[in-house]
Design brief:
Rossmann fold, Immunoglobulin-like, 6-stranded parallel β-sheet
Length: 429
């Protein structure tokens, strides 16, 4: 279906990401039926795994029979499959078992959960998470509604990212490195539900998945876990399940859900491809660096020699730069759109050129831990220069009000530098 809607260029990676919008041309029936087929294939694979005595040692024979009889391909299916590291909070869903019971056993909008994955052999805490999930899944109220699938491998992972309806990921902020399983799921029209961390902070689009907030509400991890679990329950109850079960009586399809599947492919999956990765590397790094290398080596390394000589000169003079005078707001300053902020710095820079020195004012706010976060920067301009004494001025009419920490610093400035951090001299005034 994806190849038909996007075009043959997709298979060879010779495509523009807008081609993913071809999914909007696919009929509702094709999308709905494809998603149901993929889910049925997944459920068949799960039953096969559970029937294999060589790998299925979590459940008794009678429990396996119950699970196989309970699983349905017309039920909203949420998947969680990955390495069982503690920061991934695999058991967060089980914070309130009574509420989870009400969700999975809702007679009008039932939900089934699939868990899979492995822990490192030396990671006892991760192994304990798996044991906890298995034990809970054996309870009468959860048997066949919450299933831990044994024998996690590439084949099963493929079925999961294709066959579930929603991919759940709830790591501890901000510890998620990427989240490639979610990216693969999105390529299959599976919607993601995750903390705005890892890839999802970039990938999330309204109408193409669900998100837990980026910022923590509590410093206490226990309180934060409680809040996140409650948010997951509420989102499933009030948003995800109602959308999935909003079935048109005429067509037998959930039109709103189908539209979200389209949005997931067109707006999310399109940004997480090897094509996009390589294009970004080429456009942002390889090509500019190739041009820069060419400019550095031209004319017997003329530019490289100029940069080296300039750095040597600045290093020699840097410690001798003297502050003649400067005026700036108090270190704690209240910005107001009606109050223009003026600041002035006068430096004796010796034999340096005025353009060799950058002067900037920074505005920062502090969080509840006292850590400063820079909100804005303003550059000073050269207004007067005579015999090595240079006057820099800045005039700011802020757009946002509030209390800010204010500070001014100077740094070496040269358009030939690839980046400011290439020359790490700085002085705070």
């Amino acid at each position: 279906m994806l190849f038909r809607s996007i075009g043959p260029e997709f298979q060879t990676h010779h495509y523009d990401k807008k081609c993913f919008e071809g999914i909007y041309k696919v009929s509702d029936a094709d999308i709905w039926n494809t998603r149901k087929t993929l889910k049925k294939t997944l459920i068949d694979a799960v039953k096969e795994k559970l029937s294999d005595p060589a790998i299925s040692n979590h459940y008794s024979p009678s429990q396996v029979v119950t699970i196989k009889e309970t699983l349905r391909d017309d039920v909203l299916t949420i998947g969680f499959a990955r390495r069982f590291a503690t920061y991934k909070r695999a058991t967060l869903l089980f914070s309130d078992l009574d509420r989870l019971d009400a969700i999975v056993n809702n007679p009008e909008m039932p939900v089934q959960f699939f868990f899979a994955g492995k822990a490192h052999p030396a990671d006892k805490a991760g192994q304990d998470l798996i044991r906890q999930i298995v034990e809970i899944s054996k309870q009468d109220r959860f048997i066949g509604k919450i299933v831990f699938i044994p024998g996690y491998d590439i084949s099963l992972a493929k079925r999961l990212v294709q066959g579930v309806d929603v991919w759940l990921n709830n790591p501890t902020r901000p510890q998620e490195a990427s989240g490639t399983s979610g990216e693969k799921a999105a390529m299959n029209g599976v919607m993601h539900f995750s903390v705005l961390d890892g890839w999802w902070v970039e990938g999330y689009k309204p109408g193409a998945g669900w998100a837990l907030p980026l910022e923590r509400t509590y410093d206490d991890q226990g309180y934060q876990n409680e809040l996140d679990a409650a948010t997951i329950y509420t989102t499933i109850e009030n948003e995800i399940a109602p959308l999935y079960y909003d079935i048109d009586k005429t067509t037998g399809r959930a039109e709103g859900w189908i539209e979200c599947v389209r949005n997931t492919v067109a707006q999310v999956a399109c940004n997480f491809t090897t094509n996009r990765m390589l294009t970004d590397y080429v456009n942002q790094y390889y090509a500019p660096q190739s041009v820069r290398v060419g400019s550095l080596v031209a004319d017997n390394y003329k530019v490289a020699r100029e940069i080296a000589a300039w750095k040597k000169h600045v290093r020699k003079e840097w410690n001798d730069i003297a502050v003649v005078s400067y005026t700036q707001p108090d270190s704690a300053y209240e910005l107001s759109p009606s109050k223009e902020l003026k600041a002035e710095v006068v430096l004796n820079i010796g034999s340096l050129n005025p353009e060799d020195i950058g002067v900037e004012m920074l505005f920062a706010t502090s969080d509840n831990k006292g850590k400063l976060h820079i909100q804005n920067k303003t550059d000073f301009q050269v207004v007067e220069a005579h015999d090595g004494v240079v006057k820099y001025q800045a005039s700011i009419l802020p757009e946002r009000t509030g209390m800010y920490q204010v500070a001014t610093r100077i740094y070496p400035k040269n358009p030939l530098l690839p980046h400011r951090q290439d020359f790490g001299l700085v002085r705070w005034l």
